[in-house]
Amino acid sequence: MSELPDLPALHATHAGIWLAKGGEVRSVSRGEAIARAAETPHLLLNAPMVAGRLGTPDLSGLDLLELFAFVHPARFAVPTVSGLGRAVGLEAPQGEEAAALAHLEIARALLETMDGGTDWAEREGAWTVGRALARAGWPWAPLAAARLPTPGKMERSLFTRLPEWDEGAHPTPPRTVHVDEDEALKRLDAFTGAGSERREGQRAMAASVAPTFAPRKAERQPNVLLANAGTGIGKTLAYLAPATLWAEKSGGTVWVSTYTKALQRQLDAEGARIEPDPVRRKERIVVRKGRENYCCLLNLEDAMQGGFAGRAAVLAQLVARWAAYSKDGDMVGGDLPGWLPSLFRRAGATALTDRRGECVYAGCAHYRKCFIERAERAGREADLVIANHALVLIGAARGREFGPSRIIFDEGHHLFDAADSTFAAALTGREAIELRRWIIGPEGKHRGRRRGLQARLMDLASYDEAGNEAIAKIVDAAQALNSDGWLARVQEGDPWGPLEKFFGAVRAMTYARAKAQDAGYGLETELADPDAPLVEAASAALEAMEALAQPMAALSRRLEAVLEDAPDWLDSQARARVEGAINSLGWRREQVAGWAAMLARIGGPADVDFVDWLACHRVEGRDFDIGMHRHWLDPTRPLAKAVIEPAHAVVMTSATLKTGEGWDEAEARTGAQHLDHPIRHFEAKSPFDYAGQTQVLVVNDLARDNLPALAGAYARLIEAAGGGTLGLFTAIKRLRSVHARIADRLARAGLPLFAQHVDPIDTGTLIDMFRDDPRASLLGTDALRDGVDVPGESLRLVVMERIPWPRPTVLHGARRLAGGGSAYDDKVVRAKLAQAYGRLVRRAGDGGHFVLLSAASPSRLMTAFPEGVSVERVPLEEAVRRVADRAEIAQVAKADA
Fold this sequence. Notes:
The protein is built from 38 helices and 23 strands. A hairpin with a 2-residue loop joins β1 (about 10-15) and β2 (about 15-20). By secondary structure, it is α/β, with parallel strands linked by helices. The strands form five sheets. Strands 8-9-7-10-15-6-16 form a seven-stranded parallel beta sheet, with helices on both faces. The chain has a seven-stranded parallel beta sheet with strand order 19-20-18-21-22-17-23, with helices on both faces. It has a four-stranded antiparallel beta sheet with strand order 11-14-13-12, sandwiched between helices. α19 crosses α20 (about 415-420).
């Protein structure tokens, strides 16, 4: 066992900065901390966050999180001193000085794990990766190498260790079966366990979901159930009981789709109730996400073999270490720690996934071990596929084979937003240059594995002269697309080619007509009465799109002919490559066709089904993208046609599906109103005593747009609650300003404050940190309004800085006009308020206050809250007192318990 040197540690929070060395701790200034860290590598925990606390752009040292990721790949740990200490078996430190000393104890525990002989479960591969990390200059490498003896035989590489998936026959159609209500209730009882509380709402929902799985009456007439299931009735098990019964009896697959990754993880965790045996559970329940979420082994191999340099090379090796132990290779929301890419400023993380549709399928050396292919094949045979709305909708929109026929949409109130994103189109500079790179490949000094269409299909095209000719024409036509440096040329008035000239005309018209909005959103103007330069530029761009679309269609036909004629060389792997190329090319053809339709509309009649506008996207007053956008006026129309109608059974459920607007609004938001046959409704009220557990307070003496007063209100409320506060903002600028004013003050009171758009860490990890510490608070924007599930005392106060009125965009203006004007705005706001309030009570016993810091809160909007909940308009002083009183009562109750 090697002795651990007495390493110095640097611990920085909003409360201060501490240096620990030789068992002693002292408080230091920012200047001294930066100087010391530059002289000697210090132990750190989350270097980017510590750098932010010190006010320096960069900070290097021995990051404990990186060491944890190496020693325990694919394991979860909250990235705080107490969280990481708990993960390695240490008690939580009390106070900041103890936290500084704990850095060395955590380092010792992790390094001693490597000294622990056969007890270290993740030993295999550590020596090999450790050597690679040493070559990349990883600061921990010498200390790790001293504890990693050379193995007696060569370690298996990542690509050798990963199992291969088995090729299987295409799934057979499910058998025609019925799910009896009594059977569903018995299955529910088995899930909940003997002696569990009997929830009547849960049982009623299970019985209501069961008939949805009956055979449908006619083609394109699915059985549809809208289920408004209040928080706390246990809707997850209520729909899983009949769903798993149908899957077992029919041999088919039920897809459960969520909007947030948090619920997807929660559903995956319920798998133990459905199937206790972990081996069988892996076969029966599969989590699916889009291709861009999974680690691409070919990209990873390229990064490990020199494609990455500097800190990105260290990240590549740590990801390789993780990939060997990962459950499914999911890099976004899976078992890769969400904080790991942020330690490297996300340098290279996205390049390790297939975000551009460049997969070569069976042409890849790692095809048989591919995480994406394994998940897709496992999903064909599973009882349950846990997916997300985006994957389900995109798959349906592109007409994918093996599409889901039985779907349960949880978080169904988000279907409108998911459809709005899926069925939209954007012809922007960034999108167009991405298509150019997909076709032509890297140009200039670009490094990496990226290859153009010709290189990816070279071996296939060599068998077909017409196909080879079509590829050459596609590459030639793609020269008309904008290229590197396009934005600077457009801004300088010197665009090259038809697409850059189009973007120049878009920019000129947008700047001439648009009214400046918030700096984070840029400029936009509706596409009405376009000027002559834009019409002329659009016409030339349309010709370029048509010139590109024709050879793309020809290539698709040639690839389809290869499958039909089935030459001798077309084995199963070659067939997979051709099918993959057809799918990828089909997606790009749809993109080009959509752009052509948008360009044809300029100067012609408007299509009443769509909303078209021009935009210059800006950050801090500088353009970063330019283009034309098109959204459906009602995106639930394509949702109903492409997703719901082809299915056999669809359940759409949520705690806020119906809200106070009635079933008509629920049908409008889910696409059910576009079906021409009857659908069923189900409703179960929440068992929670919202009136007794919560109170809504509207602060009526806070001046609007007074940032110091707003910050003071947040600080006083958080102090009164003793933390446990979720602060919601409608603008990032105000969030940052408030955070800057109150973070130090709260930290000195022992109340940590985390914030989206401030702390350099992903949102999911911020929520984990917030959940882990009952005295912590979290500030955020829209993503936190409906994506936070924090039960218990960790969340006891929700504060909104103002009414979340919709931004006055071109798209919102069109929908507002079609939806009834101000009444439409009110519906949108009430839904947002209901979702934000819903964060407060997640389990029995939860409760607290919901505070609106806006005197201008119309009474008509207060119907967003559950019936009976008290809504009072009070001064800030009274709101603070009531929050403090509840905190005191909770502390007494906790002490008594």
